[in-house]
Amino acid sequence: MDNTVDFEYYNTLMVHSVGNRVGPIAPVMAPSAAFGYENAEEAEGIFAGTVAKPLYARVGNPTNGKLESIVAKMEGGIGAIATASGMGAMSMVSMAILNSGDELLCIGGFFGGTYSMVNETLVRFGISNSFCEVDDFDHIESKLKSGIKMVLMESVGNPSLRLPDVQRIIDLCNEYDTILVIDNTATPILLRPIEMGADIVVHSSTKNISGHSAALGGIAVFRSVDPEHDKLLHPKYADLHKFIKKMGDKAFMPIFKKRAIRDMGMTANAFGSFMTMIGLETLPLRIERINQNVEKVASILADSLPEDVSVNHPSLPSSPDYARYKSDFAQGCGPLLTLDCGTKERAFKLLDALNVVIQTANIGDNRSLALHMTSTIFSDFDEEARKFLGVHDGLIRVSIGLEDPKVIAEDFIQAANAI
Ligand SMILES: *Cc1c(COP(=O)(O)O)cnc(C)c1O
């Protein structure tokens, strides 16, 4: 697979898709909650979906629409739906496709919010789950054979930094007619799962896509459906067939709009989508720079940290995923690296000695960020869950930003020496 990213193409695409050539150059905001209809006939058409005009802001607005069309193009999907947050997108996708009694397979380590959504909230609604390591293909195939409806995975384990064999998992889900959802938050542009054959891609746009930490948001992008031969025509998806009959190749749109957005209201707002687009137009430029920075910082730290603090990143030969990084993620696997300080006390000392890097729970920001894991995001997770997710007491998650990599590395080195 040739997965070399043409950043120049995406730089041109993004600035010209977000900006307008005529009239206001910046995206236009339409924060209205309601939209007037021309006449009763038009209202009927809008509600029937035959007239493409705004209905009411819970089911979408023109500013969201612009963001959705750009991200759909970036990911190679037929459409997208913007949501109030990344978790909004995760819950939209899960609640729209799964029913009580269904089972979900989760491959690899997960972001804390997704892990608790699957393990607590979906379970309360009668949706069971199993988790497995990224390379546990025996478990993956046996679950796919048993007829489950959905598989969930992240492009890069956060904070485990395990890299999955994305193409192999996509091919298996297609072989067994199972919907695959990939959380691509860490690797927009670097990994394009829909072009590789995945069904749905989800982002927390709060992270890399915005970059500025000024807008909470999420988005789900979906592929086109083949009304004659699609895997959605499998009898296990019988309750979705009416949407294929009505909307053909765009069937995922009403599945999410009617079964989640309309009924649960995790919709994005116009101001959030506007701010997200302001970030989006420089995404390719930032992604290229940040991913170069991560490798540089990781390599300086590997050489210069004191012996009792270690750095983990797949670009380092010490990582179990070094070979997969080189073959499948040659231009980077996102902004994260981790530090192992041995104990919580030592991790706290290192964090509190940082002068440049900011302590916060976000990732993918333009600034470098760091956070202790077991005392924060994973504080109410039991030992077994932590072990599975690759989280331990000495672990600090770092998200590298746009600063001079030497400055970031220096900050960590002086802080590690101050423990
Ligand atoms: C942050 C994050 C989410 C959740 O996104 P929010 O915008 O915070 O709701 C989901 N997945 C990953 C990988 C994330 O990093």
From TrEMBL:
Sorted UniProt keywords: Aminotransferase, Pyridoxal phosphate, Transferase
Cofactor(s) needed: pyridoxal 5'-phosphate
Pfam (any one): Cys_Met_Meta_PP
Entries under InterPro entries matching the protein: Cys/Met-Metab_PyrdxlP-dep_enz (IPR000277), OAc-hSer/O-AcSer_sulfhydrylase (IPR006235), PyrdxlP-dep_Trfase (IPR015424), PyrdxlP-dep_Trfase_major (IPR015421), PyrdxlP-dep_Trfase_small (IPR015422)
Entry's Gene Ontology molecular function annotations: transaminase activity
Protein family (similarity comment): Belongs to the trans-sulfuration enzymes family.
Name of the featured protein: Aminotransferase class I/II-fold pyridoxal phosphate-dependent enzyme
Source organism phylogeny: Bacteria, Pseudomonadati, Campylobacterota, Epsilonproteobacteria, Campylobacterales
